[in-house]
Design a protein that fits this description.
The complex is a heterodimer. By secondary structure, chain A is an all-beta fold. Chain A is built from no helices and 12 strands. Chain A is globular, with a radius of gyration of 13 Å. Chain B is mainly β. Helices cover 0% and strands 55% of the residues of chain B. In chain B, strands 2, 4, 5, 6, 9, 10 and 11 form a 7-stranded mixed β-sheet that branches. Chain B has a 4-stranded antiparallel β-sheet with strand order 1-3-8-7, with no helix packed on it. In chain B, a hairpin with a 5-residue loop joins strand 4 (31-37) and strand 5. The chains are: A mainly beta, B mainly beta. Chain A binds chain B through residues 31-32, 34, 36, 38, 41-46, 49, 51, 87, 89, 93-101, 103-104, 106, and chain B through 4, 31, 33, 35, 40-45, 48, 50, 55-56, 90, 92, 94, 96-108.
């Protein structure tokens, strides 16, 4: 079945540092790929998405590129802020638009 | 205006009780979902309805019964609550059930079983 593997957290960075959160997937066919973010006490918010190979999703300074050859969708941001502290989930959709999530990576950004 | 709203936000109850969680979306979407997030923050789909019809039913105990009275509402009823049901339950919706449609999530219902 479909699965998503993302790097274990927590990840602790200083403000303005470069962020990479790795995500790889296993799926039949060509799924759509997503990054969702969960701030403390809140639901998930869509951060970005990509629907086909080589697509780049971007939002709020975050980027991720759909790499079919490496089955990856790594999340990057050039300069993180304290307000980016949250849990980040990589996910893919299969039949019926079912989301399959990775285990989540907690990011903590310090001054 | 809240797009996907769940009630209650917190639910604390005894083992063996029956409880319901309600979800409503005002986005005009056709498809709604229930997800369970465990204590390690792992998220897993439970059910999905499209236009009031069940389209996804994962391996969930039959103590859990979703009900969709109309396409704007998807409620979750849980019978004979067990300790392992303690989790955060998220409702979500999407325009339709086409693959790749972004899903909009509610803020979750934290269920604690004593």
């Amino acid at each position: 079945g479909d699965s998503v593997t993302q790097m274990e957290g927590p990840v602790t960075l200083s403000e303005e540092a470069f962020l990479t959160i790795n995500c790889t997937y296993t799926a039949t066919g060509y799924p759509s790929l997503f990054w969702y973010v969960q701030y403390p006490g809140e639901g998930l918010q869509l951060l970005l998405k990509a629907t086909k190979a080589d697509d780049k999703g971007s939002n709020k300074g975050f980027e991720a590129t759909y790499r079919k050859e490496t089955t990856s969708f790594h999340l990057e941001k050039g300069s993180v802020q304290v307000s980016d502290s949250a849990v980040y989930f990589c996910a893919l959709t299969g039949g019926g638009n079912k989301l399959t999530f990775g285990t989540g990576t907690q990011l903590k950004v310090e001054l | 205006d809240t797009a996907v709203s769940q009630t209650p936000k917190y639910l604390v109850t005894q083992m063996g009780n029956d409880k319901s969680i309600k979800c409503e979306q005002n986005l005009g979407h056709d498809t709604m979902y229930w997800y369970k997030q465990d204590s390690k923050k792992f998220l897993k789909i439970m059910f999905s309805y499209n236009n009031k019809e069940l389209i996804i039913n994962e391996t969930v105990p039959n103590r859990f019964s979703p009900k969709s009275p109309d396409k704007a509402h998807l409620n979750l009823h849980i019978n004979s609550l067990e300790l392992g049901d303690s989790a955060v339950y998220f409702c979500a919706s999407s325009q339709d059930s086409g693959e790749g449609q972004p899903q909009h999530f509610g803020d979750g219902t934290r269920l604690s079983i004593l």
